[in-house]
Structure formats: C-alpha cells, structure tokens
Amino acid sequence: MMKKWILSAAVLLAAIGAAFFLLAEPQENTEYPVKAHSGMNMSQQPKSFKSAVTLSAIGDILIHGRVYNDAKTGSSTYDFKPMIKDVKPLIGKSDITFANQETMIGGTEIGLSTYPSFNSPFEVVDAFQDAGVDIAGIANNHTLDRGEKAILNATDRYDEIGMPYVGGYRNSQDADEPRVINKNGVKLGFLAYTYGTNGIPVPEGKPHLVNLIDKPKMIKDIEEMKKLSDAVIVSMHWGVEYIRLPNEEQQELAKFLADQGVDLVIGHHPHVLQPMEWVEGQNGKKTFVVYSLGNFLSGQVGEYKEIGGIFSVKITKELSKGTKKIEVTEPGFVPTIVVNQNNRAYRVKELKNVDQAQNNAIQEHMFQNLNEEN
Ligand SMILES: [Zn+2]
C-alpha cells in the first residue's frame, strides 16, 4: 500500500515536473544583442511564472596615468587583473554586473592619456570582464574626451570581447539597438545618460556618440524599453563632484525616472558615495535609486575619493493571472577601497579588511535613507 502510494506520488511529481518544464519560460542565457521581439506571442507565456535575478553595480573605473603605468607589462601591453583580484569574487557574485566605464577604452593606437582628457588601454575592460562585469555604461562627462575615434575603438573592443555597452554608440543603428539582458527568464533593459561632456560639443549630426540627459528622449527610450524588458535600469551620470549627498537636481531627476516607471537607477559622477533610497513615482510605483557609487578603480585619493563599493539588488518577476509583478528587494552594499604604495601596487580591497570602523561608517552612510522594512 505504502509502496503504491510512493509510486503514485513519484508519477505525479514527474508529471508536474514535465508540465513545469513545458510551461516554464526558457531559461535563456545572457544574450546580446537582443533585437526587438516584434513577433513575440504573449499567449505562449505560462499562466504563472516566478523567477529572480541578482544584479550588481560598481562605480567609476577612472584610469589615471599613474594607474595604467602601474599596470604596464610591456611596451604597449597592460594587465589590470592583479588590481582587482581581491574583489573579483564579489564583482562576479551576482547574475549580472554593471560598471561605469568613466574613461573611454580607445587603446594605445591613439595614445593613452590621463586627466583631464582620458584614454585608457583595452586591457581595462578585459580585466573587468574577467572579474564578472557583464555590461558597461559609457555615457559620462569623459565620453568625448578623445573624440569619435576613441568611442569607435572602444565599441570595437567591447564587440570583440562580447560585452554590451550602453549610453555611447558607434552609429545611429547601434544606438537604436536595445540593450536587454535575459537571465533566468527575467529581461533587464539598460539605458544610460550623462549631464554633459565637459564642455566638448557633441559632433554635429552624431548624437549617437553619447546620450545626454534629455527628458523627452528619455521618456521615449523608457517607454520603448518597457515593451522589450521586464525591468528598466537607468544609469545616470549626474550630481556634483565630491559631494556626499544628492542635490536637488538629482532628486528631481530621480522623481522624474520614478514617474516614468523605471525600476532601478544607478548613479555616478560625484566620485564619492551617495546614499540609496526609494523614490515614489506619480502612480505609486517605487523606484530604487543609488545616487552615487563612488570610484571603484581610480588614482584619486582623499576625502572619500578612494572609497567605492559593490551595490546589489534582487529583481523578482512574477507572472500570475495575466499580470506581471516586478520587485526590487534585498539592497546590499559592500564598501571597497583603492590602496597603493607610492603610486605602485594599486589594489581594490574590501574596506572591512582595511579599516573596519570606516567600513561601518560607510555602510551607515549608504543605508541612512532606508528604513528597516525596506
Ligand atoms: Zn564623471
């Protein structure tokens, strides 16, 4: 009797398993580029489905001359992997990791350069890809530092290594290609914008080179991205350098993005950390905003400029009775610090292993606007 019951239960479980297998959305791997799914048939989606993806983000990868000189291994070869090896397990821990590539990766062909007009070696992105970065934001005030050529070289390199980039593009077709990463059946749509380009004008007729903060364009982009993805993630290069709290303009833009129904805003540019908070949009939609992720790897020191971190959230998608629910939960932040010895041996380390008291203070700083129920 017992045996028969076990057998029936096993058959039932197998049937449920098979049904789930048939109904579940395919667990596609990260794919890129993702074309508009114009032929997608919603009726083929299962009645209920629940899945989650973990997402991390790191701040500015700002490669000063003293940093690339330390990474030099030959006449025109570089290796940045040792600089981030201590935090590599943390960078690659989430399903998907976003980084702000502040300096363009134009390569040695056009000559490397440091502040104020940066150009960095290709090996920078190689190292970050090796550490687990999946997508690079390249809309920032340094995008145009070395002109179109640096952007074309950078985008070539990203394509070569198979890493999507967002916010700066080689041409208008490239700019029209939505950056959607499908992981565990959850489609993450990425957009990126910058407040400006250090006074360097965007070349005539080439607005694709860098996405500027432009509300009508953003409304359109976000609307389009909502149709193609489950969660919309917007990278914002904004705020005032070296200021540890968001200003009114950032808060106003965060509210604007919440009003558009964006799920997550990843901020950077101040080169120091600014806190995280929930911002409520006009329809009651709550958007998670991290105002600034600070510097992740740079040659800047002092006044918190060597402090950065690895931000993370969980994004859950639930389909039930014809409605889709997207939830952003479990915000986390692991503070990091860049150390060096007389501009040699640049290393990114977990702050708790270098200065426990400062680590605690940074944690408090980042979580100050999140109450416990969040
Ligand atoms: Zn910047």
TrEMBL record:
This is CapA family protein. Keywords: Hydrolase. Its EC number is 3.1.-.-. It is an enzyme of class 3 (hydrolase). It comes from Metabacillus hrfriensis.
